Amino acid sequence: MKIERLGQDKIRIFLTFDDLSERGIQKDDMWQEIPKVHELFTEMMDQAYSELGFDATGPLAVEVFALPAQGMVVIVTRGKYDQQRYGSGAEDELPEEVYEMEVTLETSDSIVYAFNDFEVLIEAAHMLHDHVTNAGKLYHYKGKWILYLEPDEVEESKHAALIALLAEFGEGTSVTPAVLEEYGKVVMPEQAVEVLCTHFSRQG
After folding, report:
1. pTM of the prediction?
2. Which protein family is it in (predicted)?
3. Parallel, antiparallel, or unpaired for β 137-141 and 185-188?
4. Residue 117: partners with Cβ closer than 8 Å, 6 or more residues away
5. Which class in CATH covers the domain with range 111-199?
6. Averaged pLDDT score across all residues of the chain
7. Distance CA 46, CA 140 (A)
């Protein structure tokens, strides 16, 4: 489980499928009101508080993005107390656990992997070339190279093989396309795998 702060009142939590299975949670459970999910959410908020000092009391908007290849991204935005609802008394009179969770769910079949080293990315591209050619967008974001594959660019039957291969070289990332477009730099807007293989040869 990785937690990062996106703003004063906003955090992002990246859950791998291992994080979920360790707790006996299926992907489809995430938007159901069941004790296991509530326990997981409490655990996430405890960790967010201990790592980032993020206080999760009060109304929370929770967005869950399902990434079939890597796991789930949970974005938690803290709202403000409704003074009329809780009265204008002192803060210690407020209920302790006010998880007013407003959950929205989005699924994405995109395959997104981050690479620290450009040479490693080149090696991965050459390995991918047998599986995909006219696919991929390459971004540079926060010092990493991000390879983004659209689901319709890749045959569904090849997804598992591609993910296994990419996982050897890179790291699954929870960055969404919208964030990459806004904050990242587009290095290769299309056919990134083909372009990398054409212009860069493998080392060794």
Report:
1. 0.54
2. Belongs to the MecA family.
3. antiparallel
4. none
5. alpha beta
6. 80
7. 32
Residue 27 has pLDDT above 70, yes or no: yes
Task: Give the position of tokens 């860069």.
Answer: 200
Q: Which two tokens stand for residue 41?
A: 């959410």
Number of H helices, E strands in the chain: 7, 10
For a pLDDT cut of 70, what percent of the chain falls above it? 82
Which of 88, 104, 89, 71 has the alpha carbon at shortest distance from 2? 71
pLDDT digits (tens, 9 = 90+) for 131-153: 887 889 999 999 999 999 887 77
- Enter the tokens of residue 149: 């594959």
**Is pLDDT of 184 > 60?**
yes
- Contact at 8 Å (CB) between 78 and 9? yes
Q: Where are the domains of the chain?
A: 2-107, 111-199
Angle separating helix axes 118-128 and 192-199, nearest 10 degrees: 110
Cα separation values, 165 from 4, 113, 203, Å: 27, 11, 18
Q: For 51-69, what is each residue's pLDDT tens digit?
A: 999 988 778 888 887 776 6
Give the number of other Cβ atoms within 10 Å of residue 34's Cβ: 11
Residues 6+ apart with CB under 8 A from 22: none
Tokens of residue 182, six digits = 């806004």
The helix/strand/coil state of 51 is helix
Q: Quick count: other Cβ atoms within 10 Å of Cβ 199?
A: 9
* Torsion sign across C-alpha atoms 196, 199, 200, 202: positive
Name the 3-class secondary structure at 125. Answer: helix
